[in-house]
Amino acid sequence: MEAVTAHALHRRFGQVSALAGVDLTVPAGSVHGLLGPNGAGKTTLVRILTTLLRPTSGTATVAGFDVRRDPDRVRASIGLVGQHAAVDEILSGRQNLEMFGRLHHLGGATARRLAVELLERFGLADTGSRAVSTYSGGMRRRLDLAASLITAPPVLFLDEPTTGLDPRSRGEVWDAVRTLVAGGTTVLLTTQYLEEVDRLADHVTVIDHGTVIASGTPSALKSRLGGDRIDLVVSSGDDLPAAAALLASLTGNTPDVDEDNRRVGVAVTDRMAALTATVRGLADAGIGVEDVTLRRPTLDEVFLHLTTDDTKLVTA
After folding, report:
1. Using the 8-state DSSP alphabet, how is residue 209 labeled?
2. Where is the signal peptide, in residue numbers (predicted)?
3. Which of 15, 70, 127, 201 is most buried per CB count within 10 Å?
């Protein structure tokens, strides 16, 4: 079952086309990552899916309801967490959740019960009576997630939820998202952190200039970029040309050269054979190296390849 769908979705602002025919399918109970450079159309797409903006043309559904015909039912089926925590710093964590419950027309007893349950669920039970002004960044984001779930929506939109957080706080938010998905919530995640998508998403859609340029699992996207890679750092920058020529002759691929860091890397197919041949070739050529690494491509490399190269990668 699809929790979110979009077909041939267009949105124009005057002469500017923010979306130019976006197709999207998000299965229920999954995390779907939405990536793209600034101005690619991510925010416009999320605003349409959350009924904050009407599409110029095309169709979209959320939780089975059409965003044009049934906006009220869509809104009743979603939670939305923006880039900045929407909680009151003067109130306590529990009071914030109770307030959100009452804003959703829940009775006082029901709002209090749900507040206690959500504080426990997000690891905030011990701090629920404290003012939010005393919370860390990660605690505030977890409270924000809890507030978005006060009505138990089946679909949750997270718009760059860990922006500005330190690594520990980001990890806390990631754990909270995993808990949500384990409970059956569908998550559509937009983020600038490629590692975040790699850790959380079952599927990734990359948007650029208002169109989908790639779609697939994180693993599939990285594999399509060239499978494994060999990276090496030479001891002397003078050896960079020779090292690059060696890798090119061994693999038949064009290496990437980073002169500032004395680094050269190339895509390989037979990982162990390529590594062995590289180490032997470096020794025979008398090229000193500080480090040799065999690794998979990162989503950062995939993202840069897709959004800067003329050749676009599209998967089923």
Report:
1. T
2. none
3. 201
As a three-state string, the secondary structure of 19-33 is EEEEEEEEECCCEEE
| Contact (CB, 8 A) for 16 and 28 | no
126 Cβ neighbours under 8 A, 6+ residues apart: none
230-255 residue pLDDT tens:
999 999 989 999 999 999 999 888 88
Q: Collapsing DSSP states into helix, strand and coil, what is residue 159? A: strand
Beta strands in the chain (DSSP E): 2-13, 16-27, 31-35, 57-62, 65-66, 78-81, 155-159, 186-190, 203-208, 211-216, 228-234, 256-258, 263-268, 289-295
Mean pLDDT (the chain) is 86
H or E stretch including 35?
Answer: strand 31-35
Domain ranges across the chain = 2-222, 228-295
Question: Is the CATH number of domain 2-222 3.40.50.300?
Answer: yes
The CATH code belonging to domain 228-295 is 3.30.70.100
45 close to 205: Cβ distance less than 8 angstroms: no
**pTM over the 0.70 mark:** yes
pLDDT of 63 higher than 60? yes
- 75 close to 153: Cβ distance less than 8 angstroms: no
Residue 270 DSSP one-character state: S
What pairs with residue 289 in β-bridges?
234
**Of 164, 48, 184, 194, nearest to 204 (Cα)?**
194
The C-alpha atoms of residue 31 and residue 291 are separated, in whole angstroms, by: 36
> What does the DSSP 8-state code read for residue 56?
S
> What average pLDDT does the segment 72-100 reach?
87
- Residue tagged 């095309």 (tokens): 58
What are the angstrom distances between the C-alpha of 81 and each of 116, 228, 309? 20, 36, 32
